[in-house]
Amino acid sequence: MAFRHSPLRSRTLEDGEPNVTTYLAGMDVGNSTTEVAIAAIDGPGAQPRFVSASRVPTTGIKGTLPNIPGMVRSLREAAEAAGLPINAIERVLLNEATPVIGDIAMETITETIITESTMIGHNPGSPGGQGIGVGQTTHIKDLAAKRKGDAVILVVPRGYDFEQTAALINQALAAGVDVQGGIAQSDDGVLIANRLSKTLPFVDEVGLIDQVPLDMLAAVEVATSGQVIRQLSNPYGIATVFSLTPQETALVIPIAKALIGLRSAVVIRTPAGDVRSRRIRAGSLRLIGATQNAVIEVDAGADAIMDARVMVGELQNVEGEPGTNVGGMIERVRQTMSDVTERPIAGIRIKDILAVDCLVPQRVTGGLAKEFTLENAVGLAAMVNTDHLLMERLAQALQHEIGVRVELGGVEANMAILGTLTTPGVAVPLAVLDLGAGSTDAALMTSDGRVTSVHLAGAGNMVSLLIQRELNLPSDANVDLADVIKRYPLCKVESLFHVRNEDNSVAFFKEPLDPKLFGRVALVTETGLTPIATEHTLERIREVRREAKRKVFVRNALRALQQVAPLGNIRNIDFVAIVGGSGLDFEVSQMLMHKLAEYGTVIGTANIQGRLGPVNAVATGLVLGYLRRNGQG
Amino acid sequence: MSDPLRERPCIHIVLAPGADPALARAVEVGAEEEGVPCRLTNAGPGELIGIAYEAALGSRFGIGLAYDGDAIVLHEMHMPAAQPVLRFGFGAGAAAACRVMGANAARLLVNRPLHLGPQPEPLAGAVAPVPAPAPVAVASSVPVTDVDLDPTVLASVVAAVVAKLRERGIR
Description:
The structure holds two protein chains of two kinds.
Chain A: H1 11-15, E1 21-29, E2 33-42, E3 48-57, H2 68-81, E4 91-96, E5 100-108, E6 110-115, E7 119-122, E8 131-139, E9 151-156, H3 162-174, E10 178-184, H4 189-194, E11 202-203, E12 217-222, H5 235-242, H6 246-251, H7 253-259, E13 264-269, E14 274-279, E15 284-289, E16 293-297, H8 302-312, E17 315-320, H9 325-341, E18 350-363, E19 372-385, H10 388-402, E20 405-411, H11 412-420, E21 430-435, E22 439-445, E23 451-457, H12 460-470, H13 481-487, E24 490-493, E25 498-501, E26 506-508, E27 521-525, E28 528-531, H14 538-564, E29 575-579, H15 588-596, E30 602-605, H16 617-629
Parallel strand pairs in A: 1-4, 4-20, 8-9, 9-10, 10-11, 21-29, 29-30
Antiparallel strand pairs in A: 1-2, 2-3, 5-19, 6-14, 7-13, 8-12, 12-13, 15-16, 15-17, 18-19, 21-22, 22-23, 24-25, 24-27, 25-26, 27-28
Helix pairs in contact in A: 11-16, 12-13, 12-14, 14-15
Chain B: H1 3-7, E1 11-15, H2 23-33, E2 38-41, H3 48-58, E3 63-67, E4 71-76, E5 86-89, H4 94-110, H5 151-167
Parallel strand pairs in B: 1-2, 1-3
Antiparallel strand pairs in B: 3-4, 4-5
Helix pairs in contact in B: 2-4
């Protein structure tokens, strides 16, 4: 190992006074958390005793001066836990040259636009009646003017009482008007349908009912309970209802697609109606390698992009096609990186990318009841290398702030391995998989002490982004909902006294649960149950959560291990230890274990210092690395 | 209510002293919209929560409602007698509170999330719309300040921005 700092020895260590305890602190500033480990050294040559550790959120973006408050807080918390004043610490060792910062972005590549609103598809809690009806849209006040035999779809704005509405419809039916179904603004569908002399479909809770065009041919479909609509979610079904030509049928595909899986829907044919699925040009990515380049269309999907990424080998830079979505996306990543590192944008080189396919719900432009349709999207995580100057500047600023000597203590990957070796039952040769928030890192230490390491784009933050976008969670909430969903298992509150966990086991409670929780999907956290304010089913949330982890962590773990493995073959690695904040995850390590069993590799979560679990590896390693350099380790 | 209904499991509604009999209709409508039958039963003496608890004990579903002149209470047979599931005051309109509470009684049976206030929430519609991703925000990270800018400085800034935009293929 090469060290850029002369190993200055501390006063007490040099003097060799017996029985004088000195304290060293290792500090690791990560993308998401800042961790500190404090060790006591009872005289020269003594083994370090780790007396305390802390973990606080990183303030600001890793490697920038706004990190200082978080660093100070982390140090103070660890010092307090050890019962020390900060100035009793001999020196603080900072992780050297934060090698990478990552950024993530996501862009949809398809979009559905409806001009001249022609469809209402939604899932009100309780639509009325069942079946399909086709007729002219007619305001309820005009019903009396309809003649015998006219096929009618009624439009009922709020303000018409359900009993009054039902009476008018029964009257019209008796007079021979062919009422086929209806659209109501208030939550009255069931109440109206229950009072009619024949079973008719009624869609309710249509907010923008004023915008429903009148005297147009429309179809209303309500499925029986427990079923989904069949006719209007089928392009040929719509064609049958409206006698469409093959050309026109091609145009209704986006409508049919948006109505799949709903319990009720309305489709209205307007003369100028036009729905199209606009394919936004996603553009192409240019991967520039050391020896060869690859140009790959983003539409080709994540797998094709990742295949190209493997083919190119060591990546020098990535460019997006100017004027396209991916061009904007890559530029944004570089702009953020340029702002953070205070380097010109031209000097920002992307060293790795991870592409992930996903389906994100998007508002249908022009829909009448907040319709959503699933659109294809691609998420990209990118990573750039930063230089040593950033962390050096940080070390100086921290020294100035706390009045304790601060120095850079060693390369992150090497320090992570040293820290991980404090796990009981672990020995070299060993691979360490560091699942952080911003990047997935792997390092391999062979029995002769040589370390190879690799840093890849995409980790915990990418998983949160995927969950947020695929479940369409509010992004501006105080608590990052996606982040919490990522961390905790789910349950469904089935009664006031019991919940069903996601593994189908049931938990009973002595005290009645809060009515707020009733009927909801909730997170099982340390502090109790937290309801999730969405209508997604437990199964859907679980699926999205696990799929996101698989797409990011499992894929990246394999990529990373492949790159550090002898001869590029994961089978040549015997032991892998998981460290990093995402190693705390309740299911990722099991998923990885499952996957790596195929390669005959043992993988487990590290237990730093035999008690801290997978966190604090780098901070602990920094202290050990310092002592080792000074002949004490 | 007709005799056959007496055999069916129902949510029980009790009118406590001081209740307006017309409001029972609103309660029934709320339950009907969720597809659950309910019927009126007779009140014993006592205060509102106790009456609601009695109604719940009498119901085959174990769910009871009671209201008087001021509030409506939803109770469930497994709850502690003194702790109703929900209570809505009539401050914001008695009919609305009754209809929503009727719906809540039904939801307690069919296992759907409850309305937590006397006004129905704006459609349980789930997923709040997420604002569309902003187009490539070029200048968003530059704080706008109220400083007087030298026109030449300004011109050079504009030129730099235009150059940047061109470089990225945005015009």
